[in-house]
Amino acid sequence: MIKEVIVVEGKMDVAAINNSVEADCIITGGFTLSRHTLNDIEQAYKRRGIIILTDPDSAGERIRKFLTKRFPNAKHAFVPKIDATANDDIGIEQASPEAIRTALSKVRTVTFEPKIIFTNFDLINNGLNGSPDAAERRMKLGAVLGIGFANAKNFLKRLNHYGVTREEFDNAISSQFAK
Predict the structure, then answer these.
(1) pTM score > 0.85 for this model?
(2) Which of 77, 92, 139, 155 is most buried (CB neighbours < 10 A)?
(3) CA distance 174 to 113
(4) Which of 78, 82, 40 is nearest to 60 (CA)?
């Protein structure tokens, strides 16, 4: 049983979570969160903590950003887009139980006093920015590190805000892109 309450976008996401782990969930119903839903999330946040597990698409990212501002100590889990895509649809409901369990095993918390460990030089030097396959490389590395996919600017921010260590980064680079 997962202690925190998992915040997802829809009913089918809850079904996918329930097929993967034992957990309580709250459904946002998309970006138009009702006052009642926000109150439910706030109560869960105060009592048990929450894990935000939104779809790996632009709508999911908007919901994640909104909830992160409102609930700064929320935890975050990311299912990579490739693992959440089926039948021309992207969402947590498309992810396999294994992909969901993997995402939940790599939960991260945003640090509002980030350590600036990584710079744009790290991204460029490792082909994560400025190279033809940079987006694909960020996608693979984000999946390994449990920080999801993002453009270069947001990927760098996640590296520094989600507590990724230099050792984790270097090991992930080596395992994914051994030369």
Answers:
(1) yes
(2) 92
(3) 28
(4) 78
